[in-house]
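Appendix B. One record, verbatim.
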Amino acid sequence: MAEVVLENLCKRFGGVAAVDGVDLRVADGELLVVVGPSGCGKTTTLRMIAGLDEPASGEISIGGRSVRRLAPKDRHVAMVFQHFALYPHLDVYRNLAFGLKLRRVPRAEIEVRVREAARRLGIESLLQRRPAELSGGQRQRVALGRAIVRDPQVFLFDEPLSNLDARWRESLRADLVELQRQLGTTTIHVTHDQVEAMLIGQRIAVMDAGRIQQVGPPLDVYHAPANRFVAEFIGSPPMNFLTGRVQIVEGRPTIVCPPLHLKLPRQYLPPLQSWSGRELTLGIRPENVRTNGAAGADWESLPAEVLLCQPLGAETILRLRCGPHQLTARVPADRRHRPGDVLPVFLDLAKSHLFDPDSGRNVG
């Protein structure tokens, strides 16, 4: 187990900066999730930690020692890939034992390690089967087991659940968290799925265009996004955005995006004093757009037309039109709305976010 530190890590492919000055610190025993869209540099970062890609510049240290110039086998890390990469001609036992045999681990120790990993992963009954006789979830457990038997200082998981169906993915998510808790091994988990990141990460690092946009506990990132990209990427359905001009009316900041005049709570006045007359983007999450008519002092009521209803069982997602603007709302399933309905909607502006439309940074 060890702390992982990345300092100004860079990687270019031709003229493209795939990773552009990444600084990141992963505490000893922590489960950190790196999340971002395809092409943002998260897998390249993981491969550089593993030693599979060479950085253009920057430093990588594990357990207080630089590993930048060490071969992958000497870094004491174990990587689990998106694809299972099992040996098809070997049974599960021999797949798990293969890497240990290459390292000339004594046979008795291999037996102990393989049996213990199989027990932890619930695949003891599968040790004599070959990969072709296993389900996708079982194969991924074998891939995880192959990493566990190495007893590394750091686990590196490169989207290990993305090829599984929804049932197996949900089950294995919970198992991964419990397994990491039991082992206490420093773990960096890469995914493009922000729901997965929120569910399993002790902290999440949101990445875009080769750079870390924000790092923090999942709920901190959700409730206090550093910029518009983070606000839009983290959360499902994504945050709503309305861009308008700031006016100060009777001591209250107001976002004017015709025909809407959104009067913000007075708590937003200090940061917005200098924004009067300038454009600003207001963001509000779907759960803070409601149709139940219960409005408080900082709620704004708007007329809206229902464009689309998406029932999800416990809740319903509504697509609404307010003049030229569209909003997404998350409402209880017992709200019986239909496309074409015209109804008042209520925005909880005390829970809104304000972004600079040019830089995207959160200013409120």
